[in-house]
């Protein structure tokens, strides 16, 4: 029997400026900064996590702000569009909000749904859709009340250099169900209620390249550590090269690149972001894993000061 993931766990992208990143995702989009830590592989760089009130799986968008990083090129081998979902009836609020904050957007329809499409400061491609399914966020910030807030991910649009191979992974390894096609897109659905709709280009795309304004990887959900081990065996048995399991503090992770060129991660739902700080204080302090604590002073000196702040337009 094919294993089934509930859907997206998180999406991680490259940007340049950490404060601009916070101002956009917390200030404009109203997400909560749930964790302020570092890139464990490059401790001179922040790793910032945004999501609903607790950053629960299916809601977390995370970023590596490389101040001197190159500009990326969106293309094959990447997540092309990261899709946020909002409650039914709130799309007009988001039209008005984006207009008020001078965020240019377009509207498009696919699979009989209306999407607002826009870009962040670095050119990362984002879209908002309204749906009934999925728990509503309890987080309100700035000009975004909880009843209009982003619930989490609605899904993503994957840009594949080999759509048939990507489709095989989605269906045969991750357990997504094929829904249908619309124009040049194929749609798949998972069994979860967030991060559950994935659209893939039907025709092969040319390679993009990583850098500011592009997604580094997309992560899928595993229920727990036992489930995670079984996922690793499943990927390995498929013939794809999979990494050992890596401790990311707030989840365990494994990585593999599918033949459409996209870097996939599978991440555990637990332990979550309250592992090392209380719910009420999430995102307030720079949190470091134990093996970096002795270097805290040096690390903090090398990082630019950042803060979560209400935009002047919302004051």
From TrEMBL:
Domain VOC: 7-131, 152-269
InterPro entries: Extradiol_RC_dioxygenase (IPR052537), Glyas_Bleomycin-R_OHBP_Dase (IPR029068), Glyas_Fos-R_dOase_dom (IPR004360), VOC_core (IPR037523)
Pfam family, one: Glyoxalase
Coiled coil: none
Keyword entries, A-Z: Dioxygenase, Oxidoreductase
GO MF annotations, alphabetized: dioxygenase activity
Stated name of the protein: Ring-cleaving dioxygenase
Organism: Paenibacillus swuensis
């Amino acid at each position: 029997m094919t294993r089934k993931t509930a859907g997206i766990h998180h999406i991680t992208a490259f940007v340049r400026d950490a404060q601009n990143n916070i101002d956009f995702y917390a200030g404009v989009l109203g997400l909560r900064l749930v964790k302020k830590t570092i890139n464990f592989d490059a401790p001179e760089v922040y790793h910032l996590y945004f999501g609903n009130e607790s950053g629960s799986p299916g809601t977390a968008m995370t970023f590596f702000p490389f101040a001197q990083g190159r500009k990326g090129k969106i293309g094959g081998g990447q997540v092309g569009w990261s899709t946020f979902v909002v409650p039914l009836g709130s799309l007009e609020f988001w039209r008005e909000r984006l207009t008020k904050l001078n965020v240019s957007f377009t509207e498009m329809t696919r699979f009989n749904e209306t999407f607002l499409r826009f870009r962040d400061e670095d050119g990362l491609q984002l879209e908002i859709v309204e749906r009934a399914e999925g728990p509503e966020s309890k987080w309100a910030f700035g000009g975004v009340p909880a009843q209009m807030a982003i619930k989490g991910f609605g899904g993503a649009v994957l840009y594949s250099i080999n759509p048939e191979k990507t489709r095989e992974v989605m269906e045969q390894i991750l357990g997504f169900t094929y829904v249908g096609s619309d124009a040049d897109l194929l749609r798949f659905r998972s069994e979860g209620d967030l991060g559950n709709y994935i659209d893939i280009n039907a025709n092969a795309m040319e390679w993009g390249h990583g850098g500011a304004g592009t997604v580094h990887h997309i992560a899928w959900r595993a229920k727990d550590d036992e489930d995670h081990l079984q996922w690793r065996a499943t990927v390995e048995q498929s013939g794809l090269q999979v990494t050992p399991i890596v401790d990311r503090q707030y989840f365990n992770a494994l990585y593999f690149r599918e033949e459409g060129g996209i870097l996939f991660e599978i991440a555990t739902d637990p332990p979550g972001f309250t592992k090392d700080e209380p719910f009420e204080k999430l995102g307030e302090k720079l949190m470091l894993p134990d093996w970096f604590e002795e270097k805290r002073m040096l690390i903090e000196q090398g990082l630019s000061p950042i803060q979560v702040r209400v935009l002047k337009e919302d004051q």
